[in-house]
From TrEMBL:
Residues 163-210 form the Laminin EGF-like domain. It comes from Biomphalaria glabrata (Bloodfluke planorb). Pfam families: EGF_laminin. InterPro entries: EGF (IPR000742), LE_dom (IPR002049), MEGF10/SREC1/2-like (IPR042635). Keywords: Disulfide bond, EGF-like domain, Laminin EGF-like domain, Repeat, Signal. This is EGF-like domain-containing protein. Disulfide bonds join 6-15, 180-189.
């Protein structure tokens, strides 16, 4: 017949004309579906207009894909550490615990949360989780804000260590080292002071005389037979003898 078989988007006896404004496609039979009577592409039907920033798709109904922003979603986000960007402005939207134009800076030690706006409450040098503000206590401390020393008998990280100190010794809450009570020594405080010494740290020299020993805790002298006094410096009075001079002599003729 000689009639022209037009390609999509064209019409006329010789296919010389594009589809009218509101139509597109094969034989120009498809009606455009664009907002506000915007003209569509005569071949594909895509709406011909500058998309609003942050949107894309044939009818501007799709948000920009992740990692892009702006008009026609042509701009690439430049955010780090898992941050997304605003689809319209490109501003980085940092995850909790990060801040800065590109979300490259971690929160300072005393801050946490969105844009690092929250103030940490951790005490005794406890570390603050930059995301949720939880306190990570140093060894020897416990509690929600690390404000309590380990309970008696425990020590170390999370107070999980068990002390092994004897004779009423204290346990260092950080290291677990035993702090001996007066009169005791050794790693576990299970040994008395060496002869001749007493007291805290077994550092006090005894002052007892005439072979007397001293109490390892108080330093009190325990006199040998025939001696008395605070330091066992006095002999028994005439007529007495023995331990603590408690025995009475039974001698005749003035002996």
């Amino acid at each position: 017949t000689g009639d022209c078989n037009c390609k999509p988007g064209y019409t006329g006896d010789r296919c010389e004309a594009q589809c009218e404004r509101e139509y597109y496609g094969k034989d120009c039979k498809k009606k455009c579906d664009c907002p506000n009577d915007t003209k569509c592409n005569h071949i594909t039907g895509h709406c011909l207009r500058d998309y609003p920033a942050g949107w894309t798709g044939p009818r501007c109904e799709e948000s920009c894909p992740d990692g892009s922003w702006g008009v026609s979603c042509k701009n690439k986000c430049g955010c780090d550490n898992g941050a997304t960007c605003d689809k319209i402005t490109g501003e980085c939207l940092c995850l909790d615990g990060w801040y800065g134009p590109r979300c490259r800076e971690a929160c300072p030690k005393d801050r946490y949360g969105p844009q690092c706006m929250m103030r940490c409450m951790c005490e005794n040098n406890g570390d603050c989780d930059p995301v949720d503000g939880r306190c990570l206590c140093k060894p020897g401390w416990t509690g929600q804000i690390c404000d309590r020393a380990c309970p008696p008998g425990t020590y170390g990280a999370s107070c999980l260590g068990k002390c092994d100190c004897r004779n009423s010794a204290d346990c260092d809450p950080v290291s677990g080292e035993c702090v001996c009570a007066p009169g005791w020594r050794g790693p576990n405080c299970d040994q008395k002071c060496l002869d001749g010494y007493y007291g805290a740290g077994c550092s006090q020299p005894c002052k007892c005389q005439h072979g007397a020993s001293c109490d390892h805790v108080s330093g009190a002298c325990m006199c040998t037979e025939g001696w008395r006094g605070r330091h066992c410096e006095k002999a028994c009075p005439e007529g007495f003898y023995g331990l603590d001079c408690q025995s009475i002599c039974n001698c005749e003729d003035g002996s």
